[in-house]
Write a structure and sequence with these properties.
The protein is 33% helix and 13% strand. The chain is of the alpha/beta class and 289 residues long. It has a single domain (13-275), classed as Alpha-Beta Barrel (TIM Barrel), CATH 3.20.20. A 7-stranded parallel β-sheet has the order 1-2-3-4-5-6-7. A two-stranded antiparallel sheet has the order 8-9. Helix 2 links the parallel strand 2 (57-61) and strand 3 (87-91). The termini are far apart. The mean pLDDT is 95.
Length: 289
Amino acid sequence: MKNKFEANSNSNVLFVTNQCNNRCIMCCQPPHNDDDIDAFYAHNERLIKTAPKDTKEVCITGGEPTLAGDKLISLVELIRQELPNTSIHILSNGRNFQLNDYTHRLAVAGGDKLIFGIPFHSDYCGDHDLIAGAKGAFNETMHGLYNLSEEGCCIELRIVINKLNYQRLPQIAEYIFKNLTFVSWVALMAMEDTGYAIKNDKTIWIEPVEYIHQLCKAVDILDQWRIPVSIYNLPLCLLPPTHRKFAKQSISDWKTNYLDICKICKLKIECCGLFSTSKRKFKGLMPEK
């Protein structure tokens, strides 16, 4: 955990708990059932009170942050009090936002500074629940998404691409257009090869070169319907030139890694690079000169 924030960093993180009500099969931060909420709250309180006043963004994550209950609301209120101009990005599986009153109170606490990053694994409930490792997760997350929409919240819909959902990426894009047009943007994300992703390697790992066609088709569908879409965690050299404009500098600065071959690449300054935490590096990397 960080002991201080940096104003311009993209990795100012408040870790709320190791607990989670999902068991996502590619989770990069495998959960534990520790009684840790109070200890993390005390640490996060100190971080917020000593943070630079011009801190651009704070990410709240876990585990599942909503398992902190009212302490998550208190944390958001404290950020708004101490850092009124700072964006607050909450990474949650969205299931507990099916609770109307809780969602409303959290939305009020965060106001227009709140962004919710919610995973959406598939348009098919069976696949979503399998990837999330929790029966009924799809229905609860969908309910949560609609409740967040009712509150006028900013929603980043996150799709982590793996072997179980890559073939349906175009269908997922169509589903989003038909059912979730209220989201602020969609992020299609390459997987970080760590945590449960290593344990479930044979079930979920797929190289980006194998899914680029489906990824680009999904991007085109969303872009055609004017739903903002971004590509996270994929080096530019793996994307066709036509789709590089959708790629973002998405990897936390402390996790970003570039290979020796990247030194001569003219795209490096714009490229997100690779996860330093990943066990393997993507195949097909080729610097552009």
